[in-house]
């Protein structure tokens, strides 16, 4: 995977974070990247703290950026690994826990 560009704009409208699936509010700064892999390109938008946690996990696991981490997949596959970062990234973990509670209430 190749990062073609990366910016940190202020959202002119609401977006959905590709890591946690929660809203990025209009007026909030966020990370926007354009990625390429195997001839395909796509945009990636995320909260700044989600992007920071992802970067921290890459560093802690000694992964390169082409070994992408998607926090939603990490939450689903190894929740305990992500919970290790609760003190450093409390808002990210809170968003995932809130989503999990809503899913449980809906019976998903």
Keywords:
single chain, 108 residues, alpha+beta, three-stranded antiparallel β-sheet, two-stranded antiparallel ribbon, 5 strands, 24% strand, globular
| Proportion of beta-strand residues | 15-25%
In helices, the fraction of residues equals 25-40%
If you average the pLDDT, what whole number results?
Answer: 90
Runs in which pLDDT lies below 50 for 5 or more consecutive residues are none
Radius of gyration using CA atoms only: 14 Å
Largest sheet entry: 3 strands, antiparallel
Distance between the termini: 32 Å
Number of helices: 4
Secondary structure tally: strands: 5
Oligomer: single chain
Helix and strand element order:
EEEEEHHHH
Based on secondary structure, the structural category is: alpha+beta
Lateral strand order in the biggest sheet: 1-4-5
Based on Cα principal axes, name the global outline: globular
Topology:
Layout: E1 2-7, E2 15-16, E3 23-24, E4 30-37, E5 40-47, H1 48-60, H2 71-77, H3 79-83, H4 90-106
Antiparallel strand pairs: 1-4, 2-3, 4-5
Characterise the protein shown here.
- With 108 residues, the protein is an alpha+beta fold.
- 39% of the residues lie in helices and 24% in strands.
- It has four helices and five strands; from the N terminus they run E-E-E-E-E-H-H-H-H.
- It has helices at 48-60, 71-77, 79-83, 90-106, and strands spanning 2-7, 15-16, 23-24, 30-37, 40-47.
- The strands form two sheets. A three-stranded antiparallel beta sheet has the order 1-4-5.
- It is globular.
- The mean pLDDT is 90.
């Amino acid at each position: 995977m190749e990062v073609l560009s990366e910016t940190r704009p202020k959202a002119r409208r609401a977006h959905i974070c590709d890591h946690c699936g929660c809203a990025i509010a209009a007026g909030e700064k966020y990370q926007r990247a354009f990625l390429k892999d195997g001839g395909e390109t796509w945009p990636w938008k995320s909260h700044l703290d989600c992007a920071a946690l992802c970067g921290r996990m890459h560093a802690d696991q000694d992964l390169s950026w082409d070994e992408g981490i998607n926090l939603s997949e990490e939450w689903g596959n190894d929740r305990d690994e992500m919970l290790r970062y609760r003190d450093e990234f409390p808002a990210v973990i809170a968003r995932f826990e809130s989503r999990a509670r809503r899913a449980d209430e809906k019976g998903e």
